[in-house]
Amino acid sequence: MSEQATSSWAAFQGWLYKKNVGGRLTTLMFFLPPALVLFTLFVFLPVSEAFYYSFFKWKGLSAISESGTFVGLKNYSQVLGHSVFHTAVLNTLKLIVVSLVVQLPIAMAIALMVAEQNRINAMFRLVYFLPFILADVVAGLIWRYVYDGDYGLVGQISRFFGGDGYYPLADRDMAFNAILLVVIWKYTGYHMMIYIAGLQGIPKDLLEAAKLDGANWWQTILRIKLPLIKHAIQLSVFFSIIGALQFFEMILPLTNGGPSNATHTIVTYLYQYGIVRMKVGFGSSVGVMLFVTCVLFAFMYQKYAMKRD
Amino acid sequence: MTLLTESASDNVVQKTKQNRRNPLSLGNTLRLAFLFASSAFVLIPFYATVMGGFKTTGELRTQPFALPQHWDLTYYKQILSDPTLWTMLGNSLLYSSLTIIFTMLIASMVAFTFSHIHFFGKKYAYSYLITGMMFPAAVAILSLFIKIRDFGLLDSTAGVVLPQIAFGLAMSVLFFKSFFEQLPKEIFEAAMVDGCGYTRFFFTIVLPLSTPILATVGVFLLVGSWNSYLMPLILLNSPDNYPWTLGLMQFRGQYNVEWNLVLGYITITIIPAIIFFLLAQRYIVAGLGQGAVKG
Predict the structure, then answer these.
(1) Rounded to whole angstroms, how far apart are CA atoms B229 and B243?
(2) Alpha carbon of B39 to those of A9, A59, B32, B63, B274: distances in Å?
(3) Would you call A42 and B259 a contact, using CB atoms and an 8 Å cutoff?
(4) Angle, to 10 degrees, between the axis of helix B259-293 and the axis of helix B26-52?
(5) Angle at Cα B147 formed by Cα B142 and Cα A287, nearest 5°?
(6) Most buried in the list A77, A214, B7, B175, measured by CB within 10 Å?
């Protein structure tokens, strides 16, 4: 080895030693890769591959180079022209609107009623939050029973009024509304908790000052409480919309997309027409559209709605 | 830090409260009436479910609301003596614990490099991981299935757990990073002066100081993985490997009209969730609070 090489090797070693103070490089070498590798393998690659697969007609049985046929944008045009997909998108939009216009105001009203710390309020909070911890399939199954026109509570009520057993979930026009009620039942408590956390963070002297200035109950809420928990509201709106876009599991036990495909959402559509029939390309194109929607929404929301002032 | 100040502020609220509201005023009466009515709406489905497991199908049909005529334990016994129930609960426990342990370890390690070590491309690496929060696993579920199959991991524990870890990373990293950044800088400097390296600093000082956030993130991961349905549905084939959520749907398919058995099965599977919730509720509330106050 020449003298020059030796000295540059020594310089490199010195540089490395300096960079590795406190085991900095060694720590990075052990701490970074697990997360990055797992995320890349099981999140990033599948998402990228979904883009690729979405241009193929492929059942997924053998490698895509053998059994896949390139079809260009045909999957997308098929999905976009499918009337069931239209229903699914409409239902998802309906879910978003009902979440924002009905569910969040109810959650806020309850939060304002039970935000004060005392025994009885703590008990109410617990009750409202309870459904949130159930798995969606369990909530769906419980309400499948409640809505059963023969055995369930709805059956009992309709018999009480002298009718025959009524099955809201078998009624094309009612079924999705019935599902919306279950959503409200299950998720209102969660949004309530977010609001309560915000409300409890309001400085007490502000409320006292407002009271001294003669602000009434309604003014206090409108002018002080709501503006001050803006961040909690932004957060719960964000979660509502992302949650609605991926809403799926609860529908399987309730209606499984029926009757006559009236209650599909985007993800149940993906499940029914992509996964169950193992149409990898077709399903991936639905997944890609959902992905683009979610990411665009998240960026726009962060850029415009969550802007700090 | 909200965790520590919470109880103090509670007391203040209580004090200001006591001399304000007249318990018999019209407003308060209406408030309580609304709260009781809506609580009944929330609780009746639970009540009917638990009671349903004690009733015969005939009684269920005529008296879904009422208390059972006699407390018939046959159905609960039948469900509890079914070994597949226990296998599935065991499977769920296995998948959930592996998911939680590894997600927390991996996520806290990477969050520590983001919060305490400067390195090239840190911002990009962080944004890269965080995008995972913006979309549901469903968007890539078909390609994930193909990937797991190509790895030969279909129908295996690793095949279910690894994707769950990967999809749980984003949220956990976000929580951990913001917590680690709030740890006092002095501890870190003192440790470095004393010759404690990054790795040892992380395991002996940072992690023990982070129990509140570990508990919060752990609780959320547990609820998510204990209740997960879509991934096991796609990635597992044999009923022997099913978690309880798939088992419940299978059971429901098997006893389609015997609602009393299905309701009993539901009751048994929600009991652990409710007990766990009661034990862990302060961490759940703390987690939601952290999001709401700081974002």
Answers:
(1) 8
(2) 73, 48, 10, 21, 17
(3) no
(4) 140
(5) 25
(6) B175
* Contact status, residue A290 vs residue A270, Cβ threshold 8 Å: yes
Determine the pLDDT at residue B47: 92
Q: How confident is the model at residue A2 (pLDDT cuts 50, 70, 90)?
A: low
Element (H, E) at B220: helix B211-226
Residue B266 CB partners (closer than 8 Å, separation 6+):
A138, A141, A142, B49, B248
Three-point CA angle A61, A285, B125, nearest 5°: 100
**Predicted pLDDT at B109:** 96
H helix intervals, B19-156: 26-52, 57-62, 74-80, 83-116, 122-130, 141-150
Beta-carbon neighbour count of residue A125 at 10 Å? 21
Going through chain A in order, the beta strands assigned E by DSSP cover: 56-57, 69-70
Question: Mean pLDDT per 10-residue run, chain B (295 residues)?
Answer: 40 46 76 94 92 84 79 86 91 95 96 92 92 88 93 94 94 91 88 88 92 86 90 92 92 84 90 84 72 51
Q: Which residues of B touch A23 (CB under 8 A)?
A: 197-200
Cα angle A105-A111-A117, degrees, rounded to a multiple of 5: 170
pLDDT for residue A65 is more than 50? yes
Apex B260 CA angle, B255 and B264, nearest 5:
95
Q: Is A252 on the interface with B (CB under 8 A)?
A: yes
Q: How far apart are CA A128 and CA A222, in angstroms?
A: 24
Residue B266: Cβ within 10 Å count:
27
Please say whether the beta carbons of B91 and B243 come within 8 A: yes
Of B6, B117, B143, the CB nearest to A53: B143
Take residue A98 and report the two structure tokens written for it. Answer: 């009902």
Chain A nearest CA to B222, separation (Å): 11
Interatomic CA distance for residues A111 and B66, integer angstroms: 31
Q: In whole angstroms, give the CA distance from residue A109 to residue A226.
A: 11
Q: Are A43 and B166 in contact (CB under 8 A)?
A: yes
Tokens of A255: 């209606």
The token pair that represents B151 in the structure block: 């790895």
- CB nearest to B14's CB, from A117, A141, A234: A117
Q: What is the pLDDT of residue A16?
A: 79
- Whole-number Å distance between alpha carbons of A165 and A149: 4
Q: What is the dihedral of CA B126, B127, B131, B133, to 10 degrees?
A: 50
ipTM beyond cut 0.90 = no
Per-residue pLDDT, B19: 45
* Residue B150 CA from chain centroid, whole number: 30
